[in-house]
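hey can u check if this looks right to u? its 526 residues, i copy pasted from the old doc so theres a chance i mangled smth
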Amino acid sequence: MAMGATDSLAGQSPKPRTRYQTSPTENLAVARTVILATVFLLRGNLLANTLLLNTGTSFSRTRLPAIAGQIARRANPARTAASNHSQRHQTKDGMRSRRKKHPNWPYRGLWLAIISAMLVYVGVQTLIGGMTFAKRSTGSDWGLAFVSSLLDATIATWFVAVGASIGSFLNVVAYRLPLGRKIGGHSGCPYCGSSIRARDNIPVLAWVRLRGRCRVCRLPISVQYPLVELGVAIVFFIVYLSEFLSTGGNLPGVRGNSIGVSGLARIADPWLLGLRLTVYLFALSGLIAAALIAVRRRAVPLTLFLWCLVPVSVAAMVDPQVIVVRWREAAADGFVEARLDALTSLLCGAVAGMAVARVLAPLLYRHFDRSLMSSDPATAGARQFCGSMAVAGCLVGWQSVVSMTFVLLMAASLCCWLIGIFVRPKLVSRFARVSDLTVWVWLGLLLFRAMWKPIYGLELLPDSIPVVVRQLLGLLLLAIGTVFFVAVAPAAESESQPSEPDPDSDSDEDWEDDEAQESLNGSTAG
């Protein structure tokens, strides 16, 4: 029976195959798999495009976590917000435990250095003040000397704090201006794009407190930012010592007081002194920003020099006495005549500065376009050097442009010589444009203005020689100084630059040079 049934079944023709029927659950699983595969492919394509965009730049291994985190945040904002909230608490707990185990000794040492510097300054000012009061008929008054020294220390601290804050702003200007971006806006991490908090934006102190890393992504922030902030703070302190504390005694034709006690209490005309300092510091900050751009082999926008000249012109229209050295000895009378005379002095200074730069350009920038209209690097360097010299010429007058340029050449040669000897090549692999005098104009102006009256009083030639002949002889001396600078600066650059780029170097700590990386990051560090 079983055999018959088997034979009968074997003899029957097979039924036609039907389409496989799927259940709704299986359809949902298949759709979910397809969607997940598509999402992963899109994320992989975005990461590949990001890597291709960064080809040619210093793309190190430390940026991969930042880019992956940015892709995840764009894909799922809700989950990112929740994870950031939990990660923030974990980070705070981790940082607290880390602080207990490993105290931030550099941060504590920085505060100790600041307090020690203030105490030393107060002590020196008290000693100078007591010795000054001892020369009077009333005798020494150490209590008054101590109080006046505290007042001077307060004003000096204000100058340093404002200088450090302006240095932080100049970092942003030098980073965004060549890229054509707006200077305003909040500061952010260049890697994760997170906004920097107010307590993390304190110049120098915040960088040391965070150990040079972002609070969120923990990626390194360039040491250039605190160095620029500290450098500008020192520049403002030098201006305070040379011009404010002496009430303008370093300027020719200005009757100031010796550096000593209570500069604020001895100011005869605080309005004029404040206006002169504001104009001078504004122009000096603009020249420092131009130097930060030029040192990275970028073209300095000419609008930066125009913005430096605007406050000088406005201040000259408000009070013509802002001009220290006029273009002629005879003073103009009348309201309108005095202001026209002040504007003429500024124009003559700017023309003299550009003329001296134009004369020295063939020695400094080989094979540049004589019309200064080309876009090649040599012509761009000569053009921005002329712009920076025009700003410096407005501040010193046409009579002192040659002397200021000589101080500039000597200071730049000394700095290039020190860079070639003491600075390691790896540290200046990307900061190698030291042969451009635009980098050193601010230093020459600072040193010359601090020693203006002694230099102005030097009589190297007899008075019978006309001023024009003196300027021509000064140009010959400048040519010799320029040849010496050209011989020193390229040697410093060749010793500073490595022969081949190091792939393992921390080049990600420097400013980003690629606009693709800038568009990916979305914000800059300030």
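The longest helix spans residues 142-176.
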